[in-house]
């Protein structure tokens, strides 16, 4: 519980709230239909991808820029942050997403709002298929985050922020046709609250959470195992150990890992 007495803790929680608000505002805003014709999938994918890349670059050193309850859950499963921090992060992300959707709703003409880019399942896709799609979309995204955030691989070339952004854009380029590409429960929850439409909403929580968990297990326990004992993992979950890696490596200079 000592974390709640730390200013850096509340700064990180606020960063998650603010980042998710910005992410939802710009992502949903770019997904609205301002004219006739089919949705520009490339525009939507780039908007979400560039939004998260910008936020990782700007706020990665403050909170890790999870901007996604599924990502936070993956870090929790991997014992890379405390349970208390994870709970506050998720609450901040959900509230931030609703705030971003509410602002977008308020500044958008009524004729353009529509369903506020609510995630919907394609009529030809079953619930089982939609959940599987969300699992795979989030799996590849979390794998990218874990690999690029991993402080054990300092010799990599390229931008962490752009890698994460491209991974998210990839998920949207494929997933929009199936499920609207949720990949983020806070992003899916926000327009559902504003429009009061929760049809099949559980898919956008269950799929990403399962995908994120599988991504964590695959990377942290199979592809690039972390040699931590049970006692060390429990200490981190309780908030008395060292939470790593919470933030991405710096570009181009490696940032010092935050001791929490």
How would you summarize this macromolecular structure in one to three sentences?
The chain is an all-alpha fold and 260 residues long. Helix content is 64%, strand content 0%. The longest helix has 25 residues, at 7-31.
Which series of helices and strands comes N to C? HHHHHHHHHH
* Count of DSSP strands: 0
**Average residue-wise pLDDT:** 90
CATH topology annotation: Glycerol uptake facilitator protein
Classify the helix fraction into a percent range.
55-70%
Largest beta-sheet details? none
Number of helices: 10
Outline type: globular
Q: CATH superfamily, please?
A: Glycerol uptake facilitator protein
CATH class equals Mainly Alpha
Low-pLDDT parts are 251-260
Number of domains: 1
Strand content: under 5%
Q: Can you tell me the CATH architecture? A: Up-down Bundle
What is the alpha-carbon Rg in Å? 18 Å
Class per helix and strand makeup: mainly alpha
N-to-C span: 12 Å
In words, what does this structure look like?
With 260 residues, the protein is mostly helical. The protein has a single domain (2-238), classed as Glycerol uptake facilitator protein (Up-down Bundle). Helix content is 64%, strand content 0%. The protein has helices at residues 7-31, 41-63, 69-77, 83-107, 110-113, 127-149, 160-175, 185-195, 203-223, 230-238. Helix 1 packs across helix 8 and helix 6 packs across helix 9. The longest helix has 25 residues, at 7-31. The chain starts with 6 loop residues before the first helix and ends in a 22-residue tail after the last helix. The relative contact order is 0.19. The model is unreliable at 251-260 (pLDDT under 50).
């Amino acid at each position: 519980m000592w974390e709640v007495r730390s200013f850096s803790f509340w700064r990180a929680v606020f960063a998650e709230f603010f980042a998710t608000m910005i992410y939802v505002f710009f992502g949903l805003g770019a997904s609205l239909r301002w004219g006739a014709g089919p949705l520009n999938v490339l525009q939507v994918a780039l908007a979400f991808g560039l939004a998260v890349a910008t936020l990782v670059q700007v706020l990665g050193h403050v909170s890790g820029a999870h901007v996604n309850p599924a990502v936070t859950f993956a870090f929790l499963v991997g014992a890379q942050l405390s349970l208390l921090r994870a709970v506050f992060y998720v609450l901040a992300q959900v509230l931030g997403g609703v705030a971003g959707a509410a602002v977008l709703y308020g500044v958008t003409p009524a004729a353009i709002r529509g369903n506020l880019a609510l995630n919907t399942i394609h009529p030809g896709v079953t619930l089982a298929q939609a959940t599987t799609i969300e699992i795979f979309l989030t799996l590849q995204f979390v794998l990218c985050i874990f690999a690029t955030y991993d402080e054990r691989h300092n010799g990599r070339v390229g931008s962490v922020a752009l890698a994460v952004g491209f991974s998210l854009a990839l998920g949207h380029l494929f997933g929009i046709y199936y499920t609207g590409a949720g990949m983020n429960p806070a992003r899916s929850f926000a327009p559902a609250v504003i429009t009061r439409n929760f049809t099949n909403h559980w898919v956008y929580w269950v799929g990403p959470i399962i995908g994120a968990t599988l991504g964590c297990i695959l990377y942290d326990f199979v592809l690039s195992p972390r040699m931590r004992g049970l006692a060390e993992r429990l200490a981190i979950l309780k908030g008395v150990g060292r939470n790593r890696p919470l933030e991405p490596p710096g570009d181009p200079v490696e940032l010092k890992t935050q001791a929490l």
